[in-house]
Amino acid sequence: MDPAEVVEIQPKTSYLSPEELIELRHKDFEVPAGGLKRTQNEGSAAELQELHGALDALRAQLSVPRIERLAGRALATWNKDQQVAEVLRKDGKFENFGHSKQGKLFLEYYEALFLLEVGRLQLEYCGTIVSIEQAYVLLLGESESERFTHYLVYSALSRAGYIVVRHQAVQEAPVPITSADCVWAVLKEKLGNKPVPSKIKESPLFTAAEKRMEDLKQLIIGQKNQSPLEPGPEKASGFHFDTRKRRAQSESKGQSATKRGRVVFAGTSLVDQLQMESPYGKFQEIFQKFDIVRLDTKNYSMDNSPPDSSLQIIFDLHLHNEGFKKRSPKGPTFNVIILPPQAAFPTHDEIFTIQSQQHVNNAQLLVISVSESKQIQAFLYFIS
């Protein structure tokens, strides 16, 4: 072959020009408006036409070519047995996602799916790259469960700018129980009809305080049952009366006849002296006419059965401007309770029980209800 006839063949390149990169990088697609939302399946021609139009718009939106920087994604593999995603390569900031265990970073199912949706994670399973559609089935499950509801709330709150982490009950530092705490607990139980906390009831000082209060009660009852004319034992009461004669003081002119005729017997207490007067008798007669109902303490006990599983705190919400740190987080701004579809809203007593049993900080409760149509409604509860 003649060297002059040799033609240089240039390989076909697959690189895009800068103009094409910019155009495909910021490619926008406007979805046509569908009008009012239909609530019932009519099966009419207009409804079928709207359905086909929505499907065509979705195909056109998915068929638009896009470019992304592959190096900007983190790499993780899904562990089906532990139901977590192990991060193999990090890219970008992960201070608000995942939890560390034995030097490795793991993502919960809702964190992995959220990062996959926003294009920050490449998830693999059994050596194969998982698409978003496959990730919904793999991470959330094929059957209906609360996972989809939790992820729906997590995604909405994360996109709104909150730092959403898994709820962790705050463990209070142990405080030593004193004798005064036991005495006040007994008084609140007897007078205020409030249950005694379990940590005070288990203290060895509680038995001694309860016995001492019972002895004082029996002593007071014994003094009450004695006749006013019979002096009580001086050793039991601890009082010593002066037996010396005193000169009678001159009565003032403005003193009423009732006060002049009042006789104070030795050895009687102030309560016994007041019970001898006629106003006390009238008051006791009126008081006995009231219908007094004693509250049941077991309904307000904080040591009984735990609250309903549907009222558990799922997430803790933090604000970005509060300096959140995953290693040493501050108290959350909100605690999130997620209600499944058609679930009743919690009452005041149920919310109080949740806060008491889970040792929640002074954070406001955010109760989020998810309807069957996957609409989210949030209600803020604050108990001072």
Provide an overview of this structure:
This is tRNA-splicing endonuclease subunit Sen54 N-terminal domain-containing protein. Residues 61-124 form the tRNA-splicing endonuclease subunit Sen54 N-terminal domain. Residues 224-259 are annotated as: Disordered. The structure is a single chain. This protein has 384 residues and is of the alpha+beta class. The protein has 13 helices and eleven strands. It has a domain at 70-143: tRNA intron endonuclease, N-terminal domain (MutS, DNA mismatch repair protein, domain I). The protein has helices at 18-25, 45-62, 109-117, 132-140, 146-159, 179-191, 198-201, 204-225, 234-237, 257-260, 270-275, 278-287, 348-357; strands at residues 74-79, 84-89, 99-101, 104-107, 121-125, 128-129, 163-166, 313-318, 334-339, 364-370, 376-381. The chain has a six-stranded mixed sheet with strand order 3-4-2-1-5-6, with helices on one face. It has a five-stranded mixed sheet with strand order 7-8-9-10-11, covered by helices on one side. It is elongated, with a radius of gyration of 38 Å. It starts with 17 loop residues before the first helix and ends with a strand. Mean pLDDT is 76; it is low at 255-261 and 297-307.
